[in-house]
């Protein structure tokens, strides 16, 4: 790499010398080149290489045996121990037998009743109330402790007086000083553990009971009678609470059973006073006509779950709870909210104060103008041109349009939900013709057919309305037979199994030849409503 400097200029400027590797001008006296980092002198480079090959050995110094601050020495030793064992696994550790795990026993003096606890009268009978000692009692206790310690002090002084005189060097040498140091260390530990105070315990050792921990982690054993009370830790005097007894499983199941029974009673209609008809889990679709896409199932998932509370005067569209991250609350939360709303309506309180996420009122005059928008008799009369945008087998009713809103609102129902709605409208408002001209089966329409093989007659559902039954999760269907698409031959499911038409399970029946017209059988299925089995005891009653 050249910098454009001629040799004459280099000789005229003795303060700079060229780098032997990159030929850049470097100020004289520098060890390395500023451009490439190479050594300017060969002897320095050789010394650096030798130093890298033979590094100087590490020198470890010994720790001092004694320090003036024992706490600092103990902290330093604990840090060294933690550093030395930080890379080991947990399986390598064992509890040192020299470490004693202390368990304190709570006495009657350690307990007091706190005002924050909601204790019943039965619990309060078994909880002793602590009281503060007066100055006279505290002075008496101190005198008793001094009298108890006085004989021991006199006896110790007597032994010292009777002991033979020893030289000062013998009395202060070797084992004597070591024993004194051990006694001082024990005294220091007792002072740290008990705070320099001694407590009187009554009642002896606590047998059985429960084990609790104070906020500082001290293990304390407490008798059962102190459940629900507050006590002071014998080690650190910090207040702790003794937990109440956990109810047995049988007692816990009883409230749950009662709650479940209460929910079951209000599953179809809560006791909401005049609102005797209550429909749960109805889908409410808010649609902007300018953004509508006429595709099957395009609006199937764009809905809000609401409840309908119907009275002789109005219908309330209730959003029971706000939708969360998963679309709504749990079943117990929703049932609890419904019970609160029903109690509010039963007490005939203000409608504006109904405890629901949102409330929309449909008056009796507006209910009389409700109409079915899907399905319709003719597709060109439908807003949706006969396309099942809400899903196959769903029934849609248009709600009155709200003011200052660009969206149209539609309630969609399954067949069983729609039948409950028409029952309520017929009872309160005399509306019997809603949806009759739309092909909706308000009642089960059956037809009588005869099997070609067994010549037995049986009833099946009308296939024209079958999609409403198939889309309803509350209705269960059973396969009753098959029908030929060419000659309309009927074969019951029992006969099909006996004759092996379409195989053992009937999967290949669409390509099987009909025994009458010798054409492909097709895949027309005939269904019946599943029969609910009545228990023998209930039938006898």
Automatic annotation (TrEMBL):
Originating species: Gimesia maris
Region entry Disordered, spans: 64-91, 131-172
Name recorded for this polypeptide: Uncharacterized protein
Basic and acidic residues bias locations: 131-142, 153-169
